[in-house]
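#dry-run=false #mode=assembly
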Amino acid sequence: MAIGILALQGAFAEHAAMLDRLGAEHFEIRQRRDLDRGLDGLILPGGESTVMGKLLRDLDLFQPLRERIRSGLPVFGTCAGLILLAKEVEGGVPCFAAMDIRVKRNAYGRQLGSFSTTAEVAGLGPRPMTFIRAPYIVSAGPGTAVLAQVDGHIVAAQQEKLLVTAFHPELNDDPAIHRHFLDMIGA
Ligand code: GLN
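#status=ok
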């Protein structure tokens, strides 16, 4: 069992540290040949979704990853990673377009773009949440379970094996959401 972490840009090292803590094997995906190694799950980290979208195409990673995601590869997307998975993006363009959600980029504006709070995550209890120039989910399709809301906005959701958070669980001292992802994979 190994989890690939997209490591083109952004907060990938923090995800690796969280998986280390949970004893889960992982490796970085930086170029196409990194996909030769089988992956049981994929993490799309936070960062800048427009930059990651461009790098994915430039590095010839977009097509092979999209195919795997469409074939049911479990994916955990945080913040920019959430944007990469969304079918509809306000203020941006869809990338993998795999998850039936509409997201708003930089939804909290410049001033309030970064903040911390604690809110209930379905099945996991109250969890700390760090938001950095975060998106939120404007609406989710019928096949998508809403896992958490903050101030009336959806900030965590799951559609089959696709898990997304608008916040950064890898930046808090709390492995609960990563553990949930590993449970989803069956690790
Ligand atoms: N604002 C970024 C974007 O639109 C996301 C920020 C983040 O990942 N922390 O891609």
